UniProtKB/TrEMBL annotation:
Keyword annotations from UniProtKB, A to Z: Flavoprotein, FMN, Oxidoreductase
Superkingdom assignment: Bacteria
Family: Belongs to the FMN-dependent alpha-hydroxy acid dehydrogenase family.
Signal peptide: none
Gene3D superfamilies: Aldolase class I
Cofactor(s) the record lists: FMN
Protein known as: Alpha-hydroxy-acid oxidizing enzyme
Domain FMN hydroxy acid dehydrogenase: 6-368
Organism (species): Streptomyces virginiae
Amino acid sequence: MNAGHDTAPLPVRLEDFAGPARRALPPEVWDFIAGGSGEELTLAANRAALDRIRLVPRVLSGSGAPDTTAELPGGRAALPVAVAPMAYQRLLHPEGELATARAAAAAGVPFTLSTLSSVPVEEVTALGGVTWFQLYCQRDPGLTAELVRRAEDAGCAAVMVTVDVPSMGRRLRDLRNGFALPAGVAAAHLDPATTRRAAERRSGTCAVAEHTAESFARTLGWDDLARLREQTELPLIVKGILDPGDAATATAVGADAVVVSNHGGRQLDGAVASADMLPAVREAVPPSCRLLLDSGIRGGTDVLKALALGADGVLLGRPVLWGLASDGAEGVSRVLGLLAAELRSALELSGCAAPADAPWLTTLGAGR
């Protein structure tokens, strides 16, 4: 017995970081990062889909200790994992995106910086590491082109354009809270006057949804994606695709990679789980297209399941924010370190020497 000791148990799974994060944050900030849209049916479906998948391990493969490195857009990474784009990280920790980027660089995985970052792209890329810039196309095409040039000039390794947000989903937790950004937190890449006007109208609304509605293009089409492809020589990643036909069109237009994603259950409530669409999307795109899974990843076995279904890697979202809220860069480092340990174990126990071996595995329960 260790009577009198208040030391918290050592986290042994990524979900263990959620409790400390929730205790560290104001309730409305926790709701902002944890919640989904509508009745949160798709948010729950993402986990249910991954939990439903079963792997058939192989034995006597002679693989030994696995190599976890993988080829992702912009270069080779220590894990088949990139940190997902997530907005306004200074809500969770004073260093915000700087802390997360520092931890991602130390772990050897790409960090995706959101257009809605609370830290400018130049400050993030100055830390080193691999940075992907997530782009929300603006109503003014000139501002979109300026953001792309800014990302290139800062040294970003890829541009990830999000295509599933003509407007923000109705996130009921935020609406009930009348959520608005506090003083000192703003979108570093957008006009601050837009954020300020939305905050002044916050009664009965979500100010974040209002100020993005003033900025984001709502009528994007495939021609816009083609023009974006012409504007940059960086690898182009298209995030927010669920339909296999859309994935095929994206690659035909020039996308180098596709992220199968329902925005973590934060856009259309009732949309299909991302993992359920992964096999069909893999069949629809050429082998040269890098395929990433986003939405619901909570551990190394989830990463292995995504790889077995045809993904080249995954985006890790909310668990990174849990680590950031609980202990800044050190917390994010612990999250990524634990994920790496889980993935090494999952690869070895399944008979895979490396992530590229995962499609060898038989899966049951996918795509239902």
